[in-house]
Amino acid sequence: MTFRSVTSRVPTTALNDGTAIPQLGLGVYKISRDEIVDVVTTALAAGYRSIDTAVDYGNEAGVGRAIRESDLPREEVHVTTKLFNADQGYDNTMRAFDASLARLGLDYVDLFLIHWPVAAADLYVETFRAFQALKSQGRVISIGVSNFTVAYLQRLVAETGETPVVNQIELHPRLAQRQLREFHSAHGIATEAWSPLAKGSFLDNEVIATVAGAVGRTPAQVILRWHIQLGNVAIPKSATPERIAANLDVFDFELTPEQMDAIGTLDSGVRVGPDPETFTAGLID
After folding, report:
1. Which residues are designated catalytic?
2. Is the dihedral of CA 112, 143, 128, 157 positive or negative?
């Protein structure tokens, strides 16, 4: 399969360390080991240049294989992975990263994230210091966090002296995260949305359907365009070639201010994923 003939249409978002991340990437949450190589290969051929995986997804090896087997230069593909909860702590983090890099089969990772704060363990500051060491070694280009609240971000910055480049959070029209997005904006942190389509739970919503009809697009494309116009980075998951391609096709139309406002009325604070204040899956007692 040839990749170089496909020019990525995805704009990039500047990060506070001088690097950048494509504004739309492929999330591969628990895509099976049997599927992952074909899924990532399809996405790269369609024009994706950002792949988001994690230890917990169980598919780092397949992500790395697909990237290595493409004819894309390594520097053209932005790779994110995340530290598993049970691997927090300085020494554990260093060992866990070595294992992730080995599974990926890559020389470096573009973005490494603390997957969850797991505040009950009180290790996320120590863990981020290990992230800083990995960055200084050149094995990680950028360091960030996922599922952090304002309070956790404030403590992290105060105690490590470094602001994460990204906070990857659950974010969709039913959970718009306005307060957290405002904090990010004020402190130079990029907002990255996981589950940007809320796992498809409201693609048949009347407001979304009305906007989709008006602009001649699918409900999923309308929601992704909403993210783009808010300035979010989004990583929709799909294993279906047609949907992978359709999710990328959101850069040649715009929603009006009235349409953006209408979608904004859907915010009800309803999550489709865990609460970061209480989620401790995988934590070793």
Report:
1. 57
2. negative
